[in-house]
Protein: 3-deoxy-7-phosphoheptulonate synthase
Organism: Jeotgalicoccus coquinae
Amino acid sequence: KANRSFQEDDSVIDIGNGVKVGAENFMVCAGPCSVEDLDSTVELAIKLKDAGANSLRGGAFKPRTSPYSFQGLGVEGLKILNEAKKETGLPIVSELMGTDHLDTFVDMVDVIQIGARNMQNFDLLKALGQTNKPVYLKRGMSATIQEWLMSAEYIMAGGNNNVVLVERGIRTFETATRNTLDIQAVPVVQKESHLPIIVDPSHAAGVRYLIPSMAKAAVMAGANGLQIEVHEDPENAWSDGQQCLTPAEFKELMDTIKMLLEIE
Ligand code: PEP
Ligand code: MN
């Protein structure tokens, strides 16, 4: 079902509040790695919207490498995102890690993010297939494009065709960056599949200074959107601060992206 031979036209996925992704609809999803508190989330959401973001992303259940790192605010984080949505109208995206909270996520978020570490959690993918929620399916750290598309297929096989693919870098022998952004995945996926593909330069790079150049490269490669981590005070973020832009840096990047989208 994900294959281009099944559907010739690009899929357009409606994530609510008038925001779509796919074909000519460009999605800019931005926000903190982890939701921290109400005031900072709402203030940041307002700035992101002003800069040109059309959806808000924040982690409430976090897949941290260490069990001793901050694990997220849980349902409280989803409530905070909903307050920010009320204030700004931005649809919200958050990561679900297991089937336990599936119903809560269906009720409380606009897009369910499946992280790299769960790309092949087939029970979770099958359960998502039984809903009609838009799903952001991040590429597994060591997944081939075919394996990634097969994971999309698991969701679609159940009847949910609202899948957005997110390239977030893959693990290679290179150590200068956290992961290697596979920019070629954009045209390859678009050749193989009708599903939208967006690029997350934040988790690919793992360092702030690479994000603007990689975001611009993604636009020029024809990506259908971007997912970027932004924090008011990156040095003091509760997770992934080293790869967050400040709101001012994000605005500057967005001004360039808007120009590139006109050229493209
Ligand atoms: C995230 O989006 O915050 C995240 C943990 O990403 P990934 O699953 O791509 O590592
Ligand atoms: Mn993160």
In short: The pocket of manganese (II) ion (ligand 2) is lined by residues 33, 203, 229, 239-240 (CB under 6 Å).
